[in-house]
């Protein structure tokens, strides 16, 4: 995980939005659909003061649909309950993993079989920075 953390300057950025949707079957005329404006900040960011972006560097989370070069939207105000994907710092290194809690034990689990689960040692410098809420992934 690269160490550059991007904190969004939440400013309105409305873009064209065709509310009627796009059919995944046979094409239909688009004349019936009106254009609106859509600001993704309104839909993707619940807590602006606690939200940041981070760019993924690595392939440990490909099974969760998170790939190298993706942008993650991370909310620091959300609780990192077991099963959530989080940004954590382990001994000074940033990582994105799924957190599992079992009693007092904390595990960070990759979504790629080439990366074994990591049991957090209480002696380590460990902190969860936030919960991943969305993945911005380029297709093709």
Helix content: under 10%
What is the name of the CATH architecture of the domain at 46-136? Ribbon
Unreliable stretches, pLDDT < 50, 5 or more residues?
A: 1-6
Biggest sheet, strands in spatial order? 1-4-5-10-6-7-8-9
CATH homology superfamily of the domain at 46-136: Umud Fragment, subunit A
Largest sheet: 8 strands, antiparallel
The count of helical stretches stands at: 1
CATH T-level fold name of the domain at 46-136? Umud Fragment, subunit A
Q: Radius of gyration over alpha carbons?
A: 18 Å
Written account of the structure:
The protein has an eight-stranded antiparallel β-sheet, with no helix packed on it. The chain has a two-stranded antiparallel sheet with strand order 2-3. With 140 residues, the protein is mainly β. 4% of the residues lie in helices and 39% in strands. Mean pLDDT is 84; it is low at 1-6. It has a domain at 46-136: Umud Fragment, subunit A. The protein is globular, with a radius of gyration of 18 Å. The chain has one helix and ten strands.
């Amino acid at each position: 995980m690269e160490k550059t953390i991007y904190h969004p300057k939440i400013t309105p950025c409305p873009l064209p939005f065709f509310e009627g949707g796009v059919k995944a079957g046979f094409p239909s005329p688009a004349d019936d659909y009106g254009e609106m404006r859509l600001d993704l900040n309104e839909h993707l960011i619940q807590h602006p003061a606690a939200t940041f972006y981070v760019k993924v560097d690595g392939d440990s989370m490909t099974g969760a649909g998170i790939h190298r070069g993706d942008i993650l939207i991370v909310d620091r105000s959300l609780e990192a309950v077991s099963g959530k994907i989080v940004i954590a710092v382990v001994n000074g290194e940033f990582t994105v993993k799924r957190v599992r809690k079992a009693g007092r034990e904390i595990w960070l689990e990759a979504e790629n079989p080439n990366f074994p689960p990591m049991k957090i040692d209480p002696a380590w410098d460990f902190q969860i920075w936030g919960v991943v809420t969305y993945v911005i992934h380029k297709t093709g």
